[in-house]
Amino acid sequence: MFAQAVSTFAKRLLDFTIASLGIIVLSPLMLIIAVAIRWRMGNPVLFRQRRAGYHGLPFTMIKFRTMTVSDSAGMQDSDASRLTPLGALLRRYSLDEFPQLWNVLKGEMSLVGPRPLFIEYLDFYTADQNRRHEVLPGMTGWAQVNGRNELDWERKFALDVWYVEHQSFSLDLRILALTFWRVLTHRGISRPGHATAERFDVQSQ
Known about the structure:
Blueprint: H1 2-41, E1 46-52, E2 58-64, H2 79-82, H3 85-92, H4 100-105, E3 110-112, E4 138-140, H5 153-166, H6 169-185
Parallel strand pairs: 3-4
Antiparallel strand pairs: 1-2
């Protein structure tokens, strides 16, 4: 119990420290990205969406916008048609994820954990898959450094649950180091045949 408490404190301290420093150090780059998005795509600069967080509770995740705004009449264009060249560049280097440092600073996310997914996915999880919500969602995670969007949903969730069962401070440091390598090599940015990630439903399992 004491060891778990120490590990939890160390994880939160790491999250708070890196998120704080990241926001300060990266603020000039984030300003440049924001100006570029405003110039090339207009407003809004930030993309906000409700996602399932700790214990499945909703929170508002923020990212830099990478796609055009959906048609005002409600027509849903494909991700491929809405993804802009600037957006593709931001996704390639994971620059669109930088605003999530605010989510980490607020304690809604961690640097490392299962990626936060859509609220509507909660209806489709098995009891075992739902264990991914026993920890804070992360900017990166075990599934992200082991294939990211190249993986099918069953494999992603298995890796998420493995992380929940084996989480430790040393594992988080390992995942952070592997994340930098993944970003540099651009591995697993999208699922083959999809512009971004494949949507999940009960038929995906």
